[in-house]
Fold this protein.
Amino acid sequence: MPETSVLYVLNGPNLNLLGVREPDLYGHETLADVQARCERAADGTTVVFRQTNHEGELIDWVQEARTEACALVLNPAGYGHTSVALLDALKTLTIPIVECHLSNPAARERFRHRSYVSSVAAGVVSGFGPISYELAVRAALALVQERAGARGRSV
Ligand code: CA2
C-alpha cells in the first residue's frame, strides 16, 4: 500500500449538476457541499476531491490514486453501470475502494442494478444522499487503519 495519508474521492459524470438539477432525486446540496462533508469526515486526512464528465479522465485519476492515495471513495455515476475500462483500471489498485451513491440504485431502474465497480469494492454505501459520502469516507479510513494495524502485527 502507498505510504500516504491522502484520500481520493472521485466523482463521475453529471455530478457537477448536483443541487442545480433534479433536486427531488439528488437533493439540494451542491458538489461543493459534499466535498465539505467529506473533508469534515476525513478529520485531518487530506482529501483530493474531483469530478469529471469524461471516462478517460476518471481512469487517469484512478491510475493516479494507485500510487498517491491510501484509499479511494468512488461515485462512478453512470459509468459504474457501463464501463469495463473503469473496472480494468480499478482492478490495478491494492488500496481499499469504497463505492458510493447518493441514491439507492437497487431501488431504481433495472439497468442501475448492475455495477462493475461493486465487484472490486470493499463495500458500497448508497441511498443516504450526501451522508453516503460521509459514511464512505469513514469506512475507507477505517479500512486503511485496520490494514496498517494488520501490517504492524505481522512484523
Ligand atoms: O445515486 C448516485 O449517486 C448515482 O451514482 C448517480 C448517477 C446514476 O447514474 C447512478 O445510477 C446513481 C447519476 C448522476 C447524475 O447526477 C445528477 C445530479 C444532479 C442532476 C442531474 C444529474
Remarks:
- Strands lie at 6-11, 46-51, 71-75, 97-101, 123-126.
- The first strand starts at residue 6 and ends at 11.
